[in-house]
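Obj.: predict assembly geometry.
Materials: sequence records (below).
Method: joint structure prediction, all chains together.
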Amino acid sequence: MTDRDVRAALREWIVRTSGRIGGEALRDDTPILEQRILTSLHVLELILFLERLTGRPIDVQRLRPGAFRDVDSICRLVAAGPAS
Amino acid sequence: MRSLEATVATLAAASRRQAADPSTWLEWPAAVDRTRYFMSPELVSVYGTETWESLDEAARRRLSFWETVNFFSLNIHGERPLVAGLAERLYRDGREDVEAYLHHFLGEENEHMVYFGGFCRRYAGKVYPDRKVTFPREHAPGEEDFLFFVQALLFEQIVDAYNVGCARDERLEPTARRIHLLHHLDESRHLAFGRRYVAELFARHAGAWSRETLEGVRSHLRAFLAMTWGEYYNPAVYADAGLPGDPYALREAAFAHPRCRDHRRAVTARCLRDLREIGILDWEAEP
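Observations (raw structure tokens):
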């Protein structure tokens, strides 16, 4: 799956899950947690979504601060692989 | 409603009595009989779905073992922040009325992790990892404290429905069944405290909250329930149990299945009844 595919699927998931932002308004650098587009309570489903998308588990204990800040950050997390 | 002081005194005395009772201790066998059921089949996450119907009896029992490992794991991951949050709240101003019981609450939650973790490590060789992450945010006065205790209450109410069902079920492997029973004995006190204290905190703080804060609390609790239920459907369980197909697709199908939705609704409806009576919630259960 290309980076472009991941971004498109991720943006669609965020818009559908949040219900608080339209697809046109969500940029790749929109701070999705700071603006409460998503909250801590969405992260479980986001991680499962990313695992299914990439076929790789995500080790939550090794996540860096800011890993879910925006679409760009999440795509970097996905690209970096399971040790991220 | 009984006074908070009377509730705390009664529950603290009951905790002391139970701690001294050897009949409530747990012994670990060297191995557990993996051909038995470990969780009541009706409580297994995919029960009633096409996946469940496709499994033979041995596969159903194998799945019930991994579902139990998941249930015990999610309890551990619910109790870790609970223990941390209870410790953080001890000896703070305005908490004098419940301190005596918070010590028991904290100690008992630590004990629960010992036997949940003991089962998972001994018989499965692992604890399923936590997928939850918490981000700090601003709260209205009293809101964070209220959310801490009401989330603990909701989490424990759902867990207790499973504990009660499994503790009564003679089909289950005895060690797993006993853990369910022991947990329920403690949780029945935690739930009594939680119901009373959540009502107290709501009465103490909610009057000063803006309409936006109150709606935010309600919306948060709805999302919390959805997340909590989401943990009961773990793709790693389906993979470990050897279920055929994509475990993530199995999870999605099971979560959306009418029987599973009805089960969640039934358990959640009982959990939310008290909160609606207090006025905390204004919506029906729809997890």
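Conclusions so far: Chain A has one domain: 3-80.
To do: check interface contacts against the pulldown list.
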